[in-house]
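Renewal narrative, Specific Aim 1. Our central claim is that a sequence can be written position by position from structural information alone. The example that follows is taken directly from our test logs and has not been curated for this report. It begins with the C-alpha coordinates describing the chain, in the order in which they were read.
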Protein backbone atom coordinates (compact mmCIF):
# COMPACT_ATOMS: atom_id res chain seq x y z
CA UNK A 1 0.00 0.00 0.00
CA UNK A 2 2.94 2.32 0.80
CA UNK A 3 4.00 2.00 -2.76
CA UNK A 4 0.56 2.94 -4.06
CA UNK A 5 0.34 5.97 -1.77
CA UNK A 6 3.65 7.19 -3.15
CA UNK A 7 2.34 6.73 -6.67
CA UNK A 8 -0.79 8.76 -5.87
CA UNK A 9 1.35 11.52 -4.38
CA UNK A 10 3.45 11.49 -7.57
CA UNK A 11 0.34 11.79 -9.76
CA UNK A 12 -0.91 14.71 -7.68
CA UNK A 13 2.35 16.56 -8.26
CA UNK A 14 2.21 15.72 -11.93
CA UNK A 15 -1.35 17.09 -12.22
CA UNK A 16 -0.41 20.24 -10.36
CA UNK A 17 2.37 20.85 -12.86
CA UNK A 18 0.17 20.29 -15.93
CA UNK A 19 -0.76 23.28 -18.03
CA UNK A 20 -3.82 22.82 -20.24
CA UNK A 21 -3.71 25.13 -23.22
CA UNK A 22 -6.53 23.79 -25.35
CA UNK A 23 -9.12 21.16 -26.08
CA UNK A 24 -6.61 18.61 -27.29
CA UNK A 25 -4.51 18.77 -24.13
CA UNK A 26 -7.60 18.59 -21.97
CA UNK A 27 -8.83 15.53 -23.78
CA UNK A 28 -5.44 13.89 -23.39
CA UNK A 29 -5.60 14.61 -19.67
CA UNK A 30 -9.11 13.18 -19.40
CA UNK A 31 -8.12 9.99 -21.18
CA UNK A 32 -4.93 9.55 -19.09
CA UNK A 33 -6.46 10.12 -15.69
CA UNK A 34 -10.26 9.83 -15.89
CA UNK A 35 -10.91 7.60 -18.91
CA UNK A 36 -12.21 4.04 -18.70
CA UNK A 37 -8.62 2.77 -19.02
CA UNK A 38 -7.16 5.66 -17.08
CA UNK A 39 -5.08 5.93 -13.92
CA UNK A 40 -7.95 6.52 -11.48
CA UNK A 41 -9.77 3.43 -12.72
CA UNK A 42 -6.58 1.40 -12.46
CA UNK A 43 -5.95 2.52 -8.89
CA UNK A 44 -9.45 1.49 -7.91
CA UNK A 45 -8.61 -1.88 -9.42
CA UNK A 46 -5.79 -2.21 -6.86
CA UNK A 47 -8.35 -2.21 -4.04
CA UNK A 48 -8.68 -5.95 -4.19
CA UNK A 49 -4.96 -6.39 -3.37
CA UNK A 50 -5.16 -4.20 -0.26
CA UNK A 51 -5.40 -6.05 3.06
CA UNK A 52 -8.89 -5.85 4.54
CA UNK A 53 -7.88 -3.70 7.55
CA UNK A 54 -6.32 -1.05 5.30
CA UNK A 55 -9.08 -0.95 2.67
CA UNK A 56 -10.98 1.83 4.41
CA UNK A 57 -8.01 4.15 4.72
CA UNK A 58 -6.81 3.49 1.16
CA UNK A 59 -10.32 3.92 -0.21
CA UNK A 60 -10.63 7.36 1.38
CA UNK A 61 -7.27 8.51 -0.03
CA UNK A 62 -8.16 7.18 -3.45
CA UNK A 63 -11.53 8.95 -3.41
CA UNK A 64 -9.83 12.22 -2.51
CA UNK A 65 -7.44 11.74 -5.40
CA UNK A 66 -10.32 11.01 -7.77
CA UNK A 67 -12.16 14.18 -6.69
CA UNK A 68 -8.93 16.15 -7.02
CA UNK A 69 -8.39 14.92 -10.58
CA UNK A 70 -12.02 15.56 -11.52
CA UNK A 71 -12.11 19.05 -10.04
CA UNK A 72 -8.98 19.97 -11.99
CA UNK A 73 -10.66 18.74 -15.14
CA UNK A 74 -13.83 20.76 -14.44
CA UNK A 75 -11.84 23.91 -13.78
CA UNK A 76 -9.87 23.61 -17.02
CA UNK A 77 -12.97 22.74 -18.98
CA UNK A 78 -14.83 25.80 -17.70
CA UNK A 79 -11.93 28.05 -18.48
CA UNK A 80 -11.80 26.75 -22.07
CA UNK A 81 -15.48 27.59 -22.45
CA UNK A 82 -17.75 26.41 -25.22
CA UNK A 83 -15.01 25.10 -27.43
CA UNK A 84 -14.93 21.83 -25.57
CA UNK A 85 -17.63 19.26 -25.52
CA UNK A 86 -16.78 16.13 -23.66
CA UNK A 87 -18.04 12.85 -24.92
CA UNK A 88 -16.56 9.47 -23.95
CA UNK A 89 -16.82 8.02 -27.44
CA UNK A 90 -16.08 10.83 -29.86
CA UNK A 91 -14.70 13.99 -28.38
CA UNK A 92 -16.16 16.83 -30.44
CA UNK A 93 -13.68 19.56 -31.13
CA UNK A 94 -10.68 17.48 -30.16
CA UNK A 95 -7.99 17.46 -32.79
CA UNK A 96 -9.65 20.17 -34.86
CA UNK A 97 -7.63 23.07 -36.16
CA UNK A 98 -10.13 25.90 -35.79
CA UNK A 99 -8.12 28.15 -38.04
CA UNK A 100 -8.57 25.97 -41.15
CA UNK A 101 -11.11 27.16 -43.73
CA UNK A 102 -14.44 25.32 -43.46
CA UNK A 103 -15.73 22.63 -45.81
CA UNK A 104 -17.61 24.30 -48.65
CA UNK A 105 -21.37 23.74 -48.36
CA UNK A 106 -23.05 22.62 -51.56
CA UNK A 107 -24.95 25.55 -53.06
CA UNK A 108 -27.11 23.54 -55.42
CA UNK A 109 -27.69 24.27 -59.07
CA UNK A 110 -30.35 25.99 -61.10
CA UNK A 111 -33.19 23.78 -62.29
CA UNK A 112 -32.98 23.01 -66.03
CA UNK A 113 -36.47 24.46 -66.52
CA UNK A 114 -35.33 27.72 -64.91
CA UNK A 115 -32.18 27.79 -67.04
CA UNK A 116 -34.12 27.41 -70.27
CA UNK A 117 -36.87 29.81 -69.16
CA UNK A 118 -34.26 32.47 -68.39
CA UNK A 119 -32.60 31.89 -71.73
CA UNK A 120 -35.89 32.18 -73.64
CA UNK A 121 -36.86 35.34 -71.75
CA UNK A 122 -33.47 36.94 -72.32
CA UNK A 123 -33.70 36.38 -76.10
CA UNK A 124 -37.08 38.12 -76.25
CA UNK A 125 -35.88 40.91 -74.00
CA UNK A 126 -33.25 41.70 -76.61
CA UNK A 127 -36.11 42.20 -79.09
CA UNK A 128 -37.82 44.65 -76.77
CA UNK A 129 -40.27 42.29 -75.06
CA UNK A 130 -40.84 42.68 -71.34
CA UNK A 131 -41.97 40.04 -68.84
CA UNK A 132 -45.55 39.87 -67.59
CA UNK A 133 -47.00 37.42 -65.11
CA UNK A 134 -50.47 36.36 -64.09
CA UNK A 135 -52.23 34.14 -61.54
CA UNK A 136 -52.14 30.35 -61.62
CA UNK A 137 -55.61 30.20 -60.09
CA UNK A 138 -57.70 31.83 -62.77
CA UNK A 139 -61.34 32.48 -63.61
CA UNK A 140 -63.14 31.07 -66.60
CA UNK A 141 -63.15 34.42 -68.44
CA UNK A 142 -59.39 34.92 -68.53
CA UNK A 143 -58.48 31.30 -69.22
CA UNK A 144 -61.22 30.50 -71.76
CA UNK A 145 -64.09 32.81 -72.61
CA UNK A 146 -62.12 35.96 -73.47
CA UNK A 147 -59.84 33.82 -75.62
CA UNK A 148 -62.75 32.93 -77.84
CA UNK A 149 -63.51 29.66 -76.09
CA UNK A 150 -67.08 30.18 -74.89
CA UNK A 151 -68.79 27.60 -72.69
CA UNK A 152 -69.40 24.29 -74.47
CA UNK A 153 -66.79 25.14 -77.10
CA UNK A 154 -65.33 21.80 -78.19
CA UNK A 155 -61.76 23.16 -78.00
CA UNK A 156 -62.11 23.28 -74.22
CA UNK A 157 -61.82 19.50 -74.29
CA UNK A 158 -58.30 19.84 -75.73
CA UNK A 159 -57.19 20.93 -72.29
CA UNK A 160 -58.41 18.81 -69.38
CA UNK A 161 -59.01 21.33 -66.70
CA UNK A 162 -58.76 21.22 -62.91
CA UNK A 163 -61.74 23.14 -61.49
CA UNK A 164 -62.03 24.36 -57.90
CA UNK A 165 -64.63 22.57 -55.78
CA UNK A 166 -65.65 25.76 -54.00
CA UNK A 167 -66.44 27.68 -57.16
CA UNK A 168 -66.63 26.10 -60.62
CA UNK A 169 -65.82 29.48 -62.15
CA UNK A 170 -62.29 29.09 -60.76
CA UNK A 171 -59.71 26.77 -62.23
CA UNK A 172 -55.99 26.15 -62.44
CA UNK A 173 -54.91 27.87 -65.64
CA UNK A 174 -54.39 25.43 -68.49
CA UNK A 175 -52.07 27.76 -70.39
CA UNK A 176 -50.25 31.06 -69.96
CA UNK A 177 -52.61 32.68 -72.48
CA UNK A 178 -54.60 34.04 -69.52
CA UNK A 179 -51.83 36.63 -69.10
CA UNK A 180 -52.48 37.90 -72.65
CA UNK A 181 -56.03 38.72 -71.67
CA UNK A 182 -55.02 40.42 -68.44
CA UNK A 183 -52.45 42.57 -70.24
CA UNK A 184 -54.82 43.51 -73.08
CA UNK A 185 -57.48 44.52 -70.56
CA UNK A 186 -55.10 47.19 -69.27
CA UNK A 187 -55.45 48.97 -72.64
CA UNK A 188 -51.89 50.21 -72.67
CA UNK A 189 -50.75 49.84 -76.24
CA UNK A 190 -48.54 48.80 -77.88
CA UNK A 191 -48.07 45.52 -75.98
CA UNK A 192 -44.90 43.49 -76.35
CA UNK A 193 -44.66 40.85 -73.64
CA UNK A 194 -43.52 37.34 -72.82
CA UNK A 195 -45.21 35.50 -69.97
CA UNK A 196 -43.40 32.54 -68.45
CA UNK A 197 -45.26 30.43 -65.93
CA UNK A 198 -46.63 27.16 -64.65
CA UNK A 199 -49.78 25.61 -66.07
CA UNK A 200 -51.92 22.64 -65.06
CA UNK A 201 -53.81 19.94 -66.90
CA UNK A 202 -55.63 16.89 -65.68
CA UNK A 203 -53.41 14.36 -67.43
CA UNK A 204 -52.19 10.95 -66.36
CA UNK A 205 -48.54 11.30 -65.46
CA UNK A 206 -46.17 9.53 -67.85
CA UNK A 207 -42.86 10.11 -69.64
CA UNK A 208 -44.65 12.41 -72.10
CA UNK A 209 -47.37 14.09 -70.00
CA UNK A 210 -47.64 15.66 -66.57
CA UNK A 211 -50.34 17.35 -64.55
CA UNK A 212 -48.27 20.53 -64.42
CA UNK A 213 -45.67 21.99 -66.73
CA UNK A 214 -44.34 25.36 -67.89
CA UNK A 215 -45.00 27.61 -70.84
CA UNK A 216 -43.80 30.87 -72.25
CA UNK A 217 -46.47 32.93 -73.94
CA UNK A 218 -45.68 35.82 -76.25
CA UNK A 219 -47.88 38.69 -77.38
CA UNK A 220 -47.20 41.65 -79.63
CA UNK A 221 -49.99 44.12 -80.42
CA UNK A 222 -49.61 47.36 -82.31
CA UNK A 223 -50.78 48.98 -85.52
CA UNK A 224 -49.71 47.09 -88.65
CA UNK A 225 -48.30 43.98 -86.96
CA UNK A 226 -48.25 41.23 -89.59
CA UNK A 227 -47.62 37.53 -89.94
CA UNK A 228 -44.22 38.43 -91.44
CA UNK A 229 -43.30 40.02 -88.09
CA UNK A 230 -44.35 36.86 -86.33
CA UNK A 231 -42.24 34.70 -88.61
CA UNK A 232 -39.16 36.84 -88.35
CA UNK A 233 -39.42 37.14 -84.57
CA UNK A 234 -39.70 33.39 -84.09
CA UNK A 235 -36.96 32.70 -86.61
CA UNK A 236 -34.60 34.99 -84.72
CA UNK A 237 -35.63 33.31 -81.48
CA UNK A 238 -34.85 29.73 -82.54
CA UNK A 239 -31.57 30.73 -84.12
CA UNK A 240 -30.50 32.35 -80.87
CA UNK A 241 -31.64 29.34 -78.86
CA UNK A 242 -30.53 26.45 -81.05
CA UNK A 243 -27.90 27.92 -83.37
CA UNK A 244 -27.68 29.58 -86.78
CA UNK A 245 -28.09 26.38 -88.78
CA UNK A 246 -31.60 25.62 -87.52
CA UNK A 247 -34.42 25.80 -90.07
CA UNK A 248 -38.09 26.51 -89.41
CA UNK A 249 -41.37 25.65 -91.05
CA UNK A 250 -44.94 26.64 -90.30
CA UNK A 251 -47.88 24.24 -90.57
CA UNK A 252 -51.47 25.51 -90.59
CA UNK A 253 -53.21 24.70 -87.34
CA UNK A 254 -56.16 25.73 -85.23
CA UNK A 255 -56.38 27.72 -82.01
CA UNK A 256 -59.60 29.54 -81.12
CA UNK A 257 -57.69 32.67 -80.10
CA UNK A 258 -55.68 33.12 -83.30
CA UNK A 259 -56.58 33.40 -86.97
CA UNK A 260 -54.73 32.25 -88.96
CA UNK A 261 -53.05 29.78 -86.61
CA UNK A 262 -49.91 27.77 -87.12
CA UNK A 263 -47.58 25.35 -85.45
CA UNK A 264 -43.91 25.89 -85.90
CA UNK A 265 -41.41 23.09 -86.41
CA UNK A 266 -37.65 23.30 -86.29
CA UNK A 267 -35.29 21.04 -88.18
CA UNK A 268 -34.26 18.11 -85.97
CA UNK A 269 -30.89 18.95 -84.48
CA UNK A 270 -30.20 15.43 -83.30
CA UNK A 271 -30.09 13.65 -86.63
CA UNK A 272 -29.31 16.54 -88.98
CA UNK A 273 -31.91 15.60 -91.53
CA UNK A 274 -31.31 11.84 -91.42
CA UNK A 275 -34.38 10.93 -89.36
CA UNK A 276 -34.30 9.62 -85.79
CA UNK A 277 -36.76 8.64 -83.10
CA UNK A 278 -36.88 12.15 -81.61
CA UNK A 279 -38.27 13.55 -84.89
CA UNK A 280 -40.06 10.26 -85.60
CA UNK A 281 -38.14 9.98 -88.89
CA UNK A 282 -39.70 13.24 -90.17
CA UNK A 283 -36.56 15.42 -89.63
CA UNK A 284 -38.81 18.09 -88.07
CA UNK A 285 -39.89 18.66 -84.46
CA UNK A 286 -42.78 20.81 -83.34
CA UNK A 287 -41.89 23.44 -80.77
CA UNK A 288 -44.69 25.97 -80.53
CA UNK A 289 -48.15 27.19 -81.49
CA UNK A 290 -48.75 30.69 -82.82
CA UNK A 291 -50.93 32.91 -84.93
CA UNK A 292 -52.46 36.35 -85.46
CA UNK A 293 -54.58 37.36 -82.50
CA UNK A 294 -58.24 36.73 -83.38
CA UNK A 295 -60.15 40.05 -83.81
CA UNK A 296 -62.81 38.72 -81.45
CA UNK A 297 -60.17 38.33 -78.70
CA UNK A 298 -59.04 41.93 -79.20
CA UNK A 299 -62.65 43.12 -78.98
CA UNK A 300 -63.30 40.96 -75.90
CA UNK A 301 -60.49 42.87 -74.21
CA UNK A 302 -61.69 46.27 -75.38
CA UNK A 303 -59.10 46.80 -78.14
CA UNK A 304 -60.22 48.21 -81.51
CA UNK A 305 -59.57 45.38 -83.96
CA UNK A 306 -59.85 47.74 -86.94
CA UNK A 307 -56.90 49.74 -85.73
CA UNK A 308 -54.74 47.11 -84.03
CA UNK A 309 -53.44 43.71 -84.99
CA UNK A 310 -51.11 41.40 -83.18
CA UNK A 311 -49.43 38.04 -83.04
CA UNK A 312 -49.19 35.56 -80.23
CA UNK A 313 -47.33 32.35 -79.57
CA UNK A 314 -47.04 29.78 -76.82
CA UNK A 315 -44.42 27.15 -76.15
CA UNK A 316 -43.76 24.45 -73.58
CA UNK A 317 -40.51 24.96 -71.67
CA UNK A 318 -40.23 21.24 -70.83
CA UNK A 319 -40.43 20.34 -74.49
CA UNK A 320 -37.67 22.74 -75.45
CA UNK A 321 -35.52 21.65 -72.53
CA UNK A 322 -35.94 18.00 -73.52
CA UNK A 323 -34.82 18.81 -77.06
CA UNK A 324 -31.92 20.94 -75.92
CA UNK A 325 -30.55 18.46 -73.38
CA UNK A 326 -31.85 15.21 -74.91
CA UNK A 327 -33.99 14.29 -71.93
CA UNK A 328 -36.56 11.61 -72.63
CA UNK A 329 -38.78 11.57 -69.54
CA UNK A 330 -40.84 14.53 -68.30
CA UNK A 331 -41.04 13.11 -64.79
CA UNK A 332 -37.35 13.81 -64.20
CA UNK A 333 -38.16 17.52 -63.97
CA UNK A 334 -40.34 17.14 -60.90
CA UNK A 335 -38.74 14.22 -59.06
CA UNK A 336 -35.95 16.42 -57.69
CA UNK A 337 -33.30 13.73 -57.86
CA UNK A 338 -30.07 15.64 -57.23
CA UNK A 339 -28.13 13.25 -59.47
CA UNK A 340 -30.25 14.59 -62.34
CA UNK A 341 -30.33 18.22 -61.24
CA UNK A 342 -26.57 18.46 -60.59
CA UNK A 343 -25.84 17.84 -64.26
CA UNK A 344 -27.01 21.29 -65.33
CA UNK A 345 -24.72 24.24 -65.11
CA UNK A 346 -26.42 27.54 -65.55
CA UNK A 347 -25.19 30.21 -67.87
CA UNK A 348 -28.56 31.93 -67.41
N1 LIG B 1 -52.25 28.23 -75.41
C1 LIG B 1 -51.77 27.23 -76.34
C2 LIG B 1 -51.63 25.91 -75.61
O1 LIG B 1 -51.51 25.90 -74.44
C3 LIG B 1 -50.45 27.64 -76.93
C4 LIG B 1 -50.60 28.80 -77.81
C5 LIG B 1 -50.85 28.60 -79.17
C6 LIG B 1 -50.54 30.07 -77.32
C7 LIG B 1 -51.00 29.65 -80.02
C8 LIG B 1 -50.69 31.16 -78.17
C9 LIG B 1 -50.93 30.92 -79.54
O2 LIG B 1 -50.63 32.41 -77.76
O3 LIG B 1 -51.07 31.98 -80.37
O4 LIG B 1 -51.61 24.89 -76.24
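The sequence written for that structure reads:
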Amino acid sequence: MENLLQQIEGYKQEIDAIEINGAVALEEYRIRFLGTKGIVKALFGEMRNIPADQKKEFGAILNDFKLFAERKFDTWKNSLGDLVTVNEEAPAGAGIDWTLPGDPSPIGSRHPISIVRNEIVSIFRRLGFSVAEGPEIEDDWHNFTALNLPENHPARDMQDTFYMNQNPDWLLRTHTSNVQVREMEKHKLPIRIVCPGRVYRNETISARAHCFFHQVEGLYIDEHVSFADLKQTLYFFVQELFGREVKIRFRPSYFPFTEPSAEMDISCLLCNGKGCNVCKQTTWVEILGCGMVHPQVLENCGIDSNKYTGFAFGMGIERITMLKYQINDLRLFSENDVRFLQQFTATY
